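User: Hey, quick favor. My workstation is busy. Could you predict this chain's structure for me?
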Amino acid sequence: MLSDLSRCTWESLKLFLREELPERSPIPGAVIAIQTFGAFLGFNPHLHVLMTDGCFYGKGMFRVAPPLDMKKREG
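Assistant: No problem, here it is.
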């Protein structure tokens, strides 16, 4: 189940960036760590995500993404 949470997060982030970026077939980079405990060692599943500030495009080319317009996402 926790691996499904990680996979869902990764797929959501990829979809978000592919919709936001004008280039074709962007491939973001990310590291996702699953943590299952909180401050008091109780069961508290959550993720820590480190993500690139841009995407890779064919032959290892990397481009920094433009600032995201969050106003489009509101409402």
